[in-house]
Design a protein that fits this description.
The chain is an alpha+beta fold and 215 residues long. The chain folds into two domains: 77 residues, Glutaredoxin (3-Layer(aba) Sandwich), CATH 3.40.30.10; 113 residues, Glutathione S-transferase Yfyf (Class Pi), Chain A, domain 2. It has seven helices and six strands. The longest helix is centred in the middle third of the chain and has 21 residues. It is globular, with a radius of gyration of 17 Å. It has a six-stranded mixed sheet, covered by helices on one side. The structure holds glutathione (GSH).
Length: 215
């Protein structure tokens, strides 16, 4: 499998899950500013012009983070990275996937997106960042309450949801949203950051894009 990614973008979530799964994969870095990758025009890989993209051994491609995470988890069902398809627990997990994608991630992605001009998916102006903080904070407060007495989103073990939530929390920190105001989330983030697979993935990806072009 090939994961098309940009450092620190939402592609971090499938990257973490692939690393945890033990599945074989290679990485292709995408320059989101110029929409280029080592093979040329990235828009030929994903006409929607964004990462992540997962390319399977047979050349088929999947986009949309929440779908890619399910594909990876279902490829290694013995690892229980998501509950079994058809179980009620699976629908509860899908509820979380949808919440993270539509309520949390979507509210992080800035309406200031500059399309082909900039890789910047997070707000760069103070006004834009303030708007993001106002939209995202109540959702993070909800997750904080859920995590009371839980080490992971689904309770027991590490799941695809933790790969996703961890990724979104790295964005919160980049936008100077103080996770310290939510005790459970703060603890959760610190504990996942120390996870060997996540540590490895962060090392591999390196620093994310600068919030300001001059940085
Ligand atoms: N709906 C997509 C959104 C993906 C997305 O917004 N990707 C951002 C990085 S986190 C991106 O590649 N943006 C480039 C651009 O919009 O030009 C998903 O859930 O995967």
């Amino acid at each position: 499998m090939i994961l098309f990614y940009a450092p620190g973008a939402s592609s971090l979530a499938p990257h973490i899950l692939l690393q945890v799964s033990g599945l074989g994969f290679t990485l292709e870095k995408v320059d989101l500013t110029n929409k280029r990758w080592a093979g040329g025009d990235f828009n030929l890989i994903n006409p929607k012009s964004y990462v992540p993209v997962l390319q399977l051994e047979n050349g088929q491609r999947l986009t949309e983070c929440s779908v890619i995470l399910q594909y990876i988890a279902d490829t290694v069902p013995e690892q229980a990275l998501l509950p079994a398809v058809g179980s009620f627990a699976r629908y509860e997990a899908l509820q979380w996937l949808s919440f993270l994608a539509m309520e949390v991630q979507k509210n992080f992605i800035t309406p200031e997106r500059h399309g082909g001009v900039s890789a910047n998916f997070l707000a760069r102006t103070e006004a834009g960042q303030q708007q993001t903080r106002e939209r995202v904070s109540p959702r993070l407060a909800f997750i904080d309450q859920h995590l009371a007495g839980r080490e992971h989103v689904l309770g027991d073990g590490f799941s695809a949801l933790d790969a996703y939530l961890f990724t979104l929390l790295t964005w919160a920190r980049r936008l100077a949203i103080d996770l310290g105001q939510w005790r459970q989330l703060d603890r959760y983030f610190a504990s996942l950051k120390a996870h060997p697979a996540i540590h490895q993935v962060l090392e591999t990806e390196g620093p994310p894009h600068a919030l300001h072009p001059a940085d």
